[in-house]
Design a protein that fits this description.
Helices cover 33% and strands 16% of the residues. By secondary structure, the chain is an alpha/beta fold. The chain has a five-stranded parallel sheet with strand order 10-9-11-1-12. It has a four-stranded parallel sheet with strand order 3-2-4-5, with helices on both faces. The longest helix is centred in the N-terminal third of the chain and has 17 residues. The structure holds prop-2-yn-1-yl trihydrogen diphosphate and iron/sulfur cluster.
Length: 346
């Protein structure tokens, strides 16, 4: 049986060998550290789901797709015995398979069950909520305009709930051209990790064409995506450079780079690791803004701050725009502790 590991994205910037140098700039150097940043409740739950599955069932535990879109997290879990596959037909019959935080379509659930796999669903409850909305509107015979990026796993999963009812709208320009059957029975839903501003533009342009377009019952863009965008907007306004820690295939992380540029950062880059930061990015830079995507462990941000301290950016000010305390209980197969099987988290 062949096992195909998920193709990991190659870092775009080769690792830097030498340390960053402390080159004087005009005025004091400073870091603005966005908060909230990093792990959201759905990612925390998904990563613990794989760890607990390994403890309970032993290695290997198979995971369909990257559990979350972060190369460091995937490598760490691989080292503990997780095997990442693209599709369930790569998993040996009867084995345990974890579905990623981004969700799966009913077709994937069916294939896993046909193979006799023991599925553990790490889909974020906030993604499941959008699946439920899709199912309900489809049952009521609505046409669903799903604002999101074609090919992203979450969009494949949500659209797969009602493929004959869903049309994907990738961006504001597509809102001007999308064709619908009955504009009087139309609703929009969205991917959870989009730019809030761009999604509003898409919806405004849809509504201009289809005034009877219904809104989702509640926000589909999740609290974590929204909070991280609000925080980086505030940071970006005062930053010469913004560094976002996150992987290239992480939708919410990439959006943070875009938002930083839109809200005043003179430059913004995405890095997986601190050693991707180039000396020339720091030329003339007094204030560096830092944030990280919802799938990024904070240890990677701490590493980045240590490297930047070597370059003279030792003064750190946190810019907090919200508090977060949401915790999701684990999938039912793994719930046995006083906190739904969760280890205490800070
Ligand atoms: O932002 P996306 O949806 O690409 O996912 P990522 O894994 O980076 O973080 C949130 C989740 C799940
Ligand atoms: Fe859930 Fe939002 Fe985190 Fe995605 S980014 S896992 S929807 S909380």
């Amino acid at each position: 049986m062949s096992q195909t590991a998920v193709a990991l994205p190659v870092p775009r910037v080769p690792a830097r060998r030498e340390s960053l140098r402390d080159i004087p700039v005009d005025g004091p150097k400073k870091i603005l550290l966005a908060a909230p940043r990093g792990y959201c409740a759905g990612v925390d739950r998904a990563v613990i789901t794989v760890e607990k599955s390994l403890e309970r069932y032993g290695a290997p535990v198979y995971v369909r797709k990257q559990i979350v879109h972060n190369i460091h997290v995937v490598r760490e879990l691989e080292a503990k015995g997780a095997v990442f596959v693209e599709e369930v037909d790569e998993v040996p019959e009867g084995a345990h398979v974890v579905f990623s935080a981004h969700g799966v379509s009913p077709a994937v659930v069916d294939s896993a069950s046909d193979r006799g796999l023991q599925a553990i669903d790490a889909t974020c409850p906030l993604v499941t909520k959008v699946h439920r909305e899709a199912k309900r509107f489809a049952r009521d015979d609505f046409e669903i305009l799903l604002v999101g990026h074609e090919g992203h796993e979450e969009v494949e999963g949500t659209a797969g709930e009602a493929p004959e009812h869903v049309t994907i709208v990738n961006n504001p320009d597509e809102a001007d051209t999308v064709v619908v059957q009955d504009p009087s029975k139309l609703v929009w839903l969205s991917q959870t990790t989009l730019s809030v501003d761009e999604t509003m533009e898409t919806v405004n342009r849809l509504r201009a064409r289809f005034p009877e377009l219904q809104d989702p019952p509640s926000d589909d863009i999740c609290y974590a995506t929204q909070n991280r965008q609000v925080a980086i907007k505030k940071v970006a306004a005062d930053a010469d450079l913004v560094i976002v820690v996150g992987s290239e295939n992480s939708s919410n992380s990439v959006r943070l780079v875009e938002v930083a540029l839109q809200y005043g950062a003179k430059a913004a880059y995405l890095v997986d690791y601190a050693d991707e930061v180039r000396q020339e990015w720091l030329d003339g830079v007094r204030t560096v803004g830092i944030t990280s995507g919802a799938s990024v462990p904070d240890v990677l941000v701490q590493q980045l701050m240590r490297e930047l301290a070597d370059a003279g950016y030792a003064d750190v000010e946190e810019v907090r725009t919200a508090e977060e305390d949401l915790i999701f209980s684990l999938p039912k197969e793994l719930r046995d502790g006083p906190r739904g099987g969760r280890r205490a988290s800070a």
